[in-house]
Amino acid sequence: MNRFAIFAAAAVFLSGCASLDKTGTDASAKAVAEKPPEAPDGAIRAVPMPSAPLDANKTISRIIFASCAQQNEDQSIWDQIASENPDLTLYIGDNVYGDVYSRDPAMPELKAAYMRLAQSEPFSRVRAAAPMLTTWDDHDYGMNDAGGEYQHKEYAEALFDYVWAVPEDDPRRSRPGIYGSWTIGAEDGKRVQVIMLDTRFFRSELMPTDERGARGKERYLPDPDPAKTMLGDAQWVWLEGELKKSADLRLLVSSVQVISEGHGWEAWKMLPAERDRLYRLIDETNAEGLIVISGDRHAAGLYRKKGVSDYPIFEATSSSLNLPVSGFRSPDEEPYMEPGPNRLGDMYQDANYGILEIDWEAGAVKVAIRSETGETVLSEVVEFDALR
After folding, report:
1. Contact (CB, 8 A) for 355 and 86
2. Model pTM score
């Protein structure tokens, strides 16, 4: 999970990346077998949080996407989201902040965080209002900035499946990682494919910066090592198959940013060979209608990258629901504005969520970032013809 430099003085859940003990994988797997997520650990018991059922035949036109909600902070933004009457909600990472600083393989901190979220009445109203699809980022994976080396990842996955009520027959249950894909809409010309990537379970370790805190080099540096991976071999093979499927609008959900160039936090830019591979795959599979959705940054932005596919790649980042960067800035401090060669306009640094409003008749989608009161603060209309 990336951080702006001003986060250094924030609470412990926003502190710098902790060093990880590379041992303990066997203990984590044993914990899954001996104490499944539904079993209580003392007073801590995770509970499932199912949403409204997903109707794969329904034509959808309003999709919410959002990330980064601290379970102990104000939850009222969820009521604003519910008032949007979405057809679908995408909850795309850092869905809680449950970093397991205790190193306990039963992950009591993450369970407690999920329990707290389950007690949120506004969040319950959103889950009841529309189907919700989820992926994770680092703080609901179990450790700040963690990747494939994380020692408790098997238990984190079992807990994710339980809490988000992943059906027993869902393909995500039968393979490592939580990546998944859904095609929604039976009517020809009005089908939405949602591809949710797992950028944690398989990801190689990132290259530490040589100048911690420096603009553009805050935490990490791009690592040219072609052996390093973002998705892992199996997920890459799966993604190729998904991109070849027919869809009229295709949402590629990555918990960390893909296109952004102007910072030194976690992003696809830190594994440039993998990002180039993604661009090539989009191009080679002729994956039309693709828009990238991301979170993680505690600020929002819209981005466009030309020259990597037959059409420009568009990305929308929404973050954070209740933990924005503005909350860690003193009143007299200038807003943080990173360089953005691919960014369209400014970043938005207060609490926010994203919305896609699809006009099937006009063949266009309005991608917008909205404030906690529902005001549109960033927007771009993307025509389907521009994604072919």
Report:
1. yes
2. 0.90
